[in-house]
Amino acid sequence: MHEEMQQVAQVAVPVERAKAASTLMADYSGRVTELARIRREAIEEAAAGGMSQSEIAAHLGVSRGRVGQLASQGPPPERAFFGTDLVTVSLGGKYEAGKSPEEMGEVIAREDLANFDHLRKLMGALKLDSQYEVIPPTGIVNLNRDNHVVVCGPRLSPIIAQVLEGDDNLRFQKDHAWHLVDLKTQEVYRSPMDEDGSAADVGYLARLPRLDGKGTFIYAAGIHAIGANGVVHYLENNLADLYRDVRTRRFSTLISCRYDPKTLEVIESKRVTPIYRHEA
Hints:
The two termini are about 45 Å apart. The longest helix has about 35 residues, at about 15-50. A hairpin with a 3-residue loop joins strand 6 and strand 7. This protein has helices spanning about 5-10, 15-50, 55-60, 65-70, 110-125, 160-165, 190-195, 225-245, and strands at about 85-90, 95, 105, 130-135, 150, 170-175, 180, 185-190, 200-210, 215-220, 250-260, 265-270, 275. It folds into two domains: about 5-75, no CATH class; about 80-275, Chitobiase/beta-hexosaminidase domain 2-like (Chitobiase, domain 2, 2-Layer Sandwich), CATH 3.30.379.10. The chain is an alpha+beta fold.
C-alpha cells in the first residue's frame, strides 16, 4: 500500500480517517486530471512534430484508436496557463466614497466583479475551480503562492508597482493621466477614454515573478478598470494560441479593447504590442 494511504488507514478516529481519506482522494483526483492534461499535450506535440498516430501508438504500447481517445481526454493543454489546482483571483479593493472613515468599507469595481465571472467560466471550461479575494486598500497582497491571478492597477498596490518595475519592455507611467509605454519602441498608449471619451481602453497582460523567486503569477490591469476586462476578453478568445507561444514562461504584452458603454461588455480585443519574453 502507498505510504500516504497507509497513513490514512492508521488514523484512529473513524470520522477523522474518513475526512483524511476524502482529502487524499481529492488530491489524487487533481493529480489524475493534471496528468491527463500533460499526456494530451505530449501527444499533440508529438503529432505536431510529424509523428503519425501509428507511431505514437507503437511508442505508448496501445492501439491507434486508443491514441485518438487519449488525445481528446483530459483538459486542454492551455489549462496550465492558470495553474493545476484551485485558482485564486485577487481583485483590487478601494474604500467606499462619500462615507466617514468609521463607516468606510472595502469595495471593488463592478468591472472587476464581471471580470471574475468571465475568468471563472473560462477556468471552469479548463476544469479548474476558482475563487476571488479582495486586496485591501493598503494594496498588500501575498504574491508568493501558486495558481494565482492578480487584477489590480499599480496605483492601488505599491507591491504590484514594485514588481512591474522589473519589466524592461512595458511600463505604466503617469503625467496628467495614467498610460502605458512600450520601452522598446517608445510608443505611448493612452486610453481613448481620456483622449476623446471613446468606449475603449488599453490593458497590460503578463506572467510576472513572485517576490520569493519560486514561481510566477498572472497579472492583468487596464489604464482604467475596463481595460482589464479587455485583457480577459483576449484570453477568452486567444488562450490556446497564447499558451502555445509562451507556455508558463514569463512574458508581457498590451491589449486594446472596445466595449459597449451601456453594458460595459467588451466587444473587441486585440494585441497591440509584441509578446515580450522575459526569459531566454
